[in-house]
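Notes continue from the previous slide.

Worked example: a multi-chain complex. Inputs as given:
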Amino acid sequence: MPELPEVENVARTLRPRLVGTRVLGVEASGLPLRRPVDLARLRAACKNARVTSVRRVGKYLLLELSSEKVVLAHLGMSGRLVFAASSEPRRPHTHALFALEGGLDLRYVDPRRFGVLRVYDLAQLEASPELSVLGVDPLEDGFSADYLHEALAGTRRELKGFLLDQGCIAGLGNIYACEAMFLAGVAPRRRTNRLSRNRAVDLHRAIRSVLETGIANRGTSFSDYVDADGEAGSNQDALWVYGREGEPCRTCKSLIKRVVQGARSTFYCPRCQR
DNA sequence: GCATTACCCTGAAAGC
DNA sequence: TGCTTTCAGGGTAATG
């Protein structure tokens, strides 16, 4: 389940082999992802264009091209963007394939098809329906303790729902939201407007910390996630609460609890988080 | 404005 | 063993 750290690692592993490389052609399975894939538009944007940069915004990957177009990709729940030799057989659920010069492919594989693959004009990217609604990226300078405190104070939602809202903070998903709440010592059902400035400072620090740790550990690989080189991450071994229902808290030994909020599981320590 | 629910989808795990 | 059911969840839309 790719969240910000996993997408960041995909971007980092794509860059060395992708930037400066020419795309020779594009193929697609014809099956829709979360939205249909417009193969004609992809081909027109990519054919004989060079990749000029690979960026990440929230959970979105952006491949900028010399054609002044941008390929926007979201990996959904089970999506992978991986390199493969063009001679290598295609794995099942390969929904897009970018043939690169040098005999290499970049392949988009997504069994559950919750992902997104679209093309935008570079000049219109920021106004796209995907990016225009995003809040601040938590690794960017704009994500300060002040920003977070103000955003928390401006609503009275439950904290967990706030953290998952990409319009507030772009890039947190279920795993890192749970981990950040644990590190900050805040209960998932706490109303955001009831959090003091000190608690906001703690939460800000915790969000940065769990994301940076996730990146350093090359992502959390529970089932599907691998980077562009096909390598799994190790952050699943460093989690405090996520997926640990009924197991002892690593800090106080209380049993980790699970509740459902907005149809998503939330894991927390009832003693450490208040 | 916000919470809840359904939906999209497939593979893994659980249940029988 | 083998079949069926349940569950997982990111984002969106509909509903209350």
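Summary box: The domain at 145-268 of chain A is CATH 1.10.8.50 (Helicase, Ruva Protein; domain 3). Chain A has six helices and ten strands.
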